[in-house]
Amino acid sequence: MEETTDINRELMLDANATAGLLYEIFGVEMTAAPTECAHCGNEDELGTLLAFTRGPGVILRCSACENIVLRIVQTPDETILDARGAVYLRLARART
Ligand SMILES: [Zn+2]
Fold this sequence. Notes:
With 96 residues, the protein is mainly beta. The chain contains one helix and eight strands, in the order βαβββββββ. It has a five-stranded antiparallel β-sheet, with no helix packed on it. A hairpin with a 5-residue loop joins strand 4 (50-52) and strand 5 (58-61).
């Protein structure tokens, strides 16, 4: 099923606006983390994704094809991360 790309850019923030949420989930700074869009193969940093934060949860879309790369929903008890739109996420490891 094709997802609509008829998105409202007025509701859009860039993913740096979700940096705090990503840090909470992954425990490392994520805005510079490389990722690849599973739809179009665009490779870029997480911070370049288009963030939509006004719905239930946060949606991060590819800046090239506008398909959904990451979906994050939080309830009082858990965080649900749908990453099927990403080929990979590369997280820096802390050096101790
Ligand atoms: Zn894409």
